[in-house]
Amino acid sequence: MIGKADARNIWILIEHRGGKVAGVSLEAIGVARKLADSSSQEVWAVALGPGAQALGADLIKVGADVVLTAEDARLDGFRDDPYTDALTHLVTTYKPSALIVGATSNGKSLAPRLASRLRTGLASECVDLEWDAAAGNLVAVRPMYGGNVLATVVCPEVRPQLATLRVKSAPRPEPDPARKGRVEKADISGVELRDRVKVLEAVETGGGEVKLEEADIVVSGGRGVGGPEKFSVIKALAEACRGAMGASRAAVDAGWLPYAHQVGQTGKTVSPKVYIACGISGAIQHLAGMKSSDIIVAINKNPEAPIFKVATYGIVGDLFEVVPLLTEEIKEASA
Amino acid sequence: MRIVVSIKQVPETTEVKIDPAKNSVDTEGLTRIINPYDTYALEEAVRIKEASGATVAVISVGPEKVDESLREALAMGADEGFHLSDPAFEGSDPLATAYILARGIEKLGPYDLVICGRQAMDGASGQVGPSLAEELGLPCVTFVRKIEELKEGYIRVQRMTDDGYEVVEGPLPMVITVVKEINEPRLASLKGLMKAKRVTIPVWNASDLGLDPARYGPAGSPTSVARLSPPPPRTGGEMIEGTPEEQVRILVRKLRDAKVL
């Protein structure tokens, strides 16, 4: 185990594919920059696998002091086994104080295994990270009980302190072309990387659409939409906003939209700039998945619907009247 | 084939109050249920059993009342129940919980597959499944939405990713965590519940499991919860009045003023 006194610097694991860095990795660099600046530490962006080197300059521009790369062909594409082995080697070599991973499906698979391997603490799906300078600890805030409780989690003794950062819980830092940093290459060719699970095929569903968790605007439909073909009204609004389409559990359970669209406790958690709930009553399970959105717009026939209690703006009315009008108005406004 | 399903007992609601004096969530008096995500794990195991004759063992860590949830799992179709319980387990974080569970699973004997829910409804860390795999020295596939093939020593599944899914294969034994999309869990039948009452469920404590005292409870938990707080209340709540045309015009203006359009 790595002790507190030996550990320094904030690491971010960079998730990348095809030369593109995941949004949440950039958001994490922004968070790490703030933590590092308040505690005189460095931000290290750790990029593994083929293509890592090429990301260096851009990662420095958004806030990394050091980009640590390991361009090993065995790390092409995510699998938790080889990534855990590689990171365990790097972490024990360089001894970071904290390691932040995006709370993506891959990050959420990797971080717990890595925590158990290193016998250190992990705070999952954090929505806020601060540095307690007096104690020298990462202070991680994470929702529990469907967002009804915020827990502040600390890992006071063991290092590195692991955290997964919820997608879109922090702004993306603006690139600064004048920022300086260095790229450090790690040679892990002698490190044994286990690889027990094989990815045979990756299928992108809903190709071309904006990803639900990444969208700035999410338009969701619920029971009030009334049927699968009627979701075209919701889809048209989502497209006009260049946003993503979501659904309540009721709509998914009815088979109107696939599960991948479900927002709520048993579906996805989203935190867009604007969440437009159409014909969604606002059961607590649904609210758990969207109530941290910046602005919530509710459109519902029933003025007593609980969704109006969390809505920033509420419109009582027939969604089949209001939503098409809204689509037209937004098209005009952005034309 | 023997399948182990790890379940957690949780309060039936997430609408809970914080007890500031004890720095804990007050769940006193709330009905306790099997974590809804774990019911998908259980259902999947029982379906495999029905299709190809596996046995299903269900295991859980927690206080005395967890016995009820284990019996409910038996009533849903599990064959054996194992209860890991010790007052000293209280205060275990997900890392320590995975350690306890791993030693329990090793004690219950040979198995081929461990199925967990993707996360618990209360703590929601999603950590125990993958951590358990690490503690058992096994491979893990998370967020499984479909088991395509399962046979002696081999499994192929569909794993949900952020933009779709991937088809993944690997050797057994393995740990998988499952998502809601995988099935529709059945309810425990009354007859099943009656029958489950008569099953003996072994209860194993720390010494039965031969645990290292430095690895469970608060001493074995690297993390601790410093503070619990309610989320900041949402402000606003402005109802937009007028004809639909007026309502829409006002809304778009407000969204433009907020620079989100």
Structural notes for this entry:
The complex is a heterodimer of chains A (335) and B (261). Chain A is α/β, with parallel strands linked by helices and 335 residues long. Chain A is 26% helix and 28% strand. The longest helix of chain A has 15 residues, at 23-37. The model of chain A has no long low-confidence stretch (mean pLDDT 94). Chain B has 261 residues and is an alpha/beta fold. Chain B contains seven helices and 15 strands. The chains are: A alpha/beta (335), B alpha/beta (261). Chains A and B meet through α3, α4, β8, β10 and β11 of A and α3, α4, β9, β10 and β11 of B. β11 of chain A pairs antiparallel with β14 (224-229) of chain B.
Question: Per DSSP, what share of the residues of chain A sits in E-state strands of 2 or more residues?
Answer: 25-35%
**What is Rg of chain B?**
22 Å
Q: Please report the number of helical segments of chain B.
A: 7
The succession of helices and strands of chain B, N to C, reads EEEEEHEHEHEHEEEEHEHEEH
Instruction: Please report the two chains with the greatest interface, counting residues with C-beta closer than 8 angstroms to the partner's C-beta.
Output: A-B, 90 and 80 residues
Basic shape of chain B: globular
Q: What is the CATH C-level name of chain B?
A: Alpha Beta
CATH superfamily of the largest domain in chain A: HUPs
Looking at the overall shape, the CATH architecture of the largest domain in chain A is 3-Layer(aba) Sandwich
Largest sheet of chain A: 7 strands, parallel
This entry's quaternary arrangement is heterodimer
- CATH 2nd-level architecture of chain B: 3-Layer(aba) Sandwich
The CATH superfamily of chain B appears as HUPs
Low-pLDDT stretches of chain B:
none
Number of E-state strands of chain B: 15
CATH third-level topology of chain B: Rossmann fold
Gyration radius from CA atoms of chain A, angstroms: 22 Å
- Count of separate DSSP helical elements of chain A: 9
Structural class of chain A: alpha/beta
The strand line-up of the biggest sheet of chain B is 11-10-9-12-8-1-6-7-13
